[in-house]
Amino acid sequence: MEVTAEKLQKTQKISKTKEELEEELSTSITGLKSIRRRENLIATFVDGAACGWKFYVPEAFKEALDIKLSTLVTFMQPYEAWTQGHNYAFQEGDSIYSHPYQDWKEFLQQENAIVLAVKHCTPAGFEDDIKLQGVFSGNRFSKKITKSKRVEDYNVEIVKKTYDPGTLTVEIFKVKSDKSGLEIFDNLTITQVDFVTLIQQGYYWQKPKNKDDELKVKKIILIP
User: Fold this and answer.
1) HEC profile for 64-94?
2) How many angstroms separate the CA atoms of 182 and 39, rounded?
3) What is the pLDDT confidence band of residue 12, given thresholds at 50, 70 and 90?
4) Full-model pTM
5) How far is CA 218 from the centre of its chain?
6) Three-state secondary structure along 19-69?
7) From CA 78, how far away is CA 69, in angstroms rounded?
8) First to last CA, the chain
């Protein structure tokens, strides 16, 4: 049987179309298989630091805030823009100061001078919770089409993703009453997400560690 170039091209096109449909089917069912980044940033940086935040957060922490310069495409036209993700990733050894400083003695004289020191960490982000893989044959329904479509032997991967907010162990230091140095104020276990709230808004919630802990929930304001 003679196979013409036209028939070969048609066969390759059908095969490619099936692969594309398999990917489309898996993605549509999974929902959160691919998390799109957005241009709505949680921080705007002015003069090298996050504008309006209670703590001094330099541009060096853009990556920890998952703010990245990305290549986006619209109508086949690529362009670059700063985008926001969900994978906050402050790391062990990171320190956030309440004020910018060049001279340590001057920093200690600042009102509400505070240092946050990250000791242990796990990053935030989406991770696979449940995954199903296999071959599917049946009818596909979609609100975009009025009739169901029959599919045969499609390789499908269905993934349920959950968001892990990450964890941090943070030591909070305040200035001694005689302004000679710092002293420990609190040792805090907090999620990456809540840590972003802390440096942005200046407060955190003191919470019981388990159901038997009689500690009352209390809002701790570090910087008014």
Assistant:
1) CCCEEEEEEEECCEEEEEEEECCCCCCCCCC
2) 39
3) very low
4) 0.74
5) 26
6) HHHHHHHHHHHHCCCCCCCECCCCCCEECCEECCCCCECEHHHCCCCCEEE
7) 13
8) 82
Q: Across residues 100-113, what is the average pLDDT?
A: 92
- Token couple for 93: 């050894």
**What whole-number distance in Å separates Cα of residue 209 and Cα of residue 215?**
8
| pLDDT at 129 (0 to 100) | 59
Q: Which two tokens stand for residue 74?
A: 């619209």
d(Cα 154, Cα 95) in Å, to the nearest integer?
50
Distance CA 164, CA 133 (A): 23
If you average pLDDT over residues 163-183, what whole number do you get?
Answer: 94
Cα separation, 72 vs 36, whole angstroms: 11
Q: Which two tokens stand for residue 49?
A: 């630091």
Q: What is the mean pLDDT of residues 41-64?
A: 96
Give phi and psi for 18, each to the nearest 5.
-65, -45
Give per-residue burial for 134-164: e unless 16+ CB within 10 Å, then b: eebeeebeeeeeeeeeebeebebbbbebeeb
